[in-house]
Structure formats: C-alpha cells, structure tokens
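Suppose you are handed a protein chain with no further information: no name, no annotation, nothing but its sequence. What can you learn? This example shows the usual starting point.
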Amino acid sequence: MAEIIITKENFDDEVRNFKDEPVLLDFWAGWCGPCSLLSPIVEEIADEYDGQVKVGKVNVDEQPELAAAFRVDNIPLLVLVKDGVIQSQSVGYRSKEDVLEFIGL
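A reasonable first move is to predict its three-dimensional structure. Written in structure tokens, the prediction is:
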C-alpha cells in the first residue's frame, strides 16, 4: 500500500481511530534535505510491509495544525502511533534498518 497523505480532515479516520496495525507518521517538508533522503526509505517500507504498518505522510507546511499538535520542532520526525496512542518519536534521518527497528519490524 502506498503512503497516505495525512491531513487534519482525515487524521481521526486514518490515525487516531485506526486499530488494525501501527501507524508510522513521517512529518516532512519539501525544503528539508534530510526529509528528501528519508522519504524513499519510508515509501519502501510502506510498500514492503503493507498489512504490518500503515504509513502516513504529513507535510508540516501544509498541515501546521497537525505539526503544532505533535509539537514538531525539527524534521524529519517519525512518530509511531498504535491504537491512537503515540508509542515513540524519532527526529532526523535514519537508515531503513533503523526505521524498521523503530517500528518493531
């Protein structure tokens, strides 16, 4: 499954009330170099681990309310949510292996 674009309008359905599997949120911006490096890794994980993790992308410039709600100070920021509850967060670029470990896969 491809990554899902998360907005304030679909956040409840796609993240908060989603109970089937963990949700990995990638907070990013187009002008962010490390975000550009992390993006293909996150996309790969979304495709390869479909059914084990749901992957959502949050553009902090387009979704400032979500960025504020998650207190995003630095990007890229990965947030792991399970059953509507934040499990962990990680700031900065990470290798694919590190992201998989972060998710618990």
